[in-house]
Structure formats: structure tokens, C-alpha cells
Amino acid sequence: MVTAARGRPRSFDRDAALDKAIRLFWRRGYEATSVRDLTEELGIGAPSLYSAFGDKQQLFMEALRVYDERYGGFIDRALADEPTAKRAAARVFAEAPERYTRRNLPAGCLIVSGDAGTTSTEIAEHLRRMRDNKVDAFAAKIRTDIAAGRLPADIAPRALGRYTMAALNGIAQAARDGVTRAELDRVAEIALRAWP
User: pTM to 2 decimals?
Assistant: First the structure.
């Protein structure tokens, strides 16, 4: 009887697998992505998926964190780098159309659309908090500018922060719907004009 020799186990590139999972969730969202979809995309069996990442929800949470660092993050960088809230808003509005329509990547934003249709209150709440944190960050920078006299005192910081993020979320969704970058650039220019 001939027995097959065991081959050396193939190495598993966890980071590359996570990037594939990020892109799959980005294209389909949390709810529409099944464990089977993930195992097929990553080229591993379900036991290996669970061993490497935990369950689907744990994988999605990690995917969101890494997505924000690797593919997102431009809003946080603009808020940290720019001296005023308006300059930060101008920068994100200038960058968003290009970022949401990058070649070889899914269109739109995982943080904006990742919870579409989900029945998981935990996933929906987590993404809502992520989006609200961006509103809070803009509102804080706006408050600083009001205190410094760079913006009028009668501005509602949270409302202006919410407007900014709502406009960006709309640009992301429009990109997902196939709107061209040129049109999104014009939308972003109009959105910035609403700033005082």
C-alpha cells in the first residue's frame, strides 16, 4: 500500500487574507457576505477562517479597523494636519471623490455602507459610532475655530460637522452607485460652499 507523503503546510498570509476580506465586505457589506463567500475568497476552509479570525463578526470588526487605517483615514489626517476646520473640510471634500472612486478597489466607503441591510444591532451600532466619531471630531475643531474667532459664534458646531459628514457619506454612496469622479468633484465643490 502506498501512502501519500504529507506535504509541508502552505504558509498562510494573514494580512493578505484580511485584505481580501476587507475588499469583499467593502463590495457586499456585512450582511450580504456569507462565511462561504469569505472562505472562497480567502481560499481557506471554514475551520481555518475561524482559527485565524474568529467568527464572521470578529473578522468584520477587524476589517473595519484595518480598512480605516489602510484605505480610509483621510478625514482624521485632514483634521489633524490642517490649522482650521474649514481647511480640513476643504481638504476632505477635495480628496473624497478620488478616494471613493479608486481603480482596483471597490467604490464608496466600507464605513458608510458596510452595515446596509444588516440585522445585527451590534454591527449597526458599531458603524454608527464610527460615523458619529467623525462628526464629533469635526465639531470639536469647529468649536476651537469659534473660540479663536475664525468662525462666527452663531454656528452650531455639531450641525456643521454633521452636514460635512452627511455630504461626504452622500459622495461615497454616489461613487458606489457609479457616479463619475468628475461629477463627484463638482458635488464636493458645492458642498464646501455651504461652509461659512
Answer: 0.89
Contact 136, 161 (CB under 8 A): yes
DSSP string, 152-168: -TT--HHHHHHHHHHHH
| CA atoms within 13 A of residue 42's CA, in its CB half-sphere | 30
User: Which three-class secondary structure state does DSSP give residue 177?
Assistant: coil
Closest CA to 169 of 101, 96, 103: 96
The DSSP annotation for 41-71 comes to HHT--HHHHHHHH-SHHHHHHHHHHHHHHHT
| pLDDT one-digit tens code per residue, 12-41 | 799 999 999 999 999 999 999 999 999 999
Helix, strand, coil tally for the chain in percent (to 5): 70, 0, 30
Q: How many CB atoms lie within 10 A of CB 183?
A: 13
Sorted by where each starts, the structural domains of the chain and their CATH numbers stand as 14-67 (1.10.10.60), 71-193 (1.10.357.10)
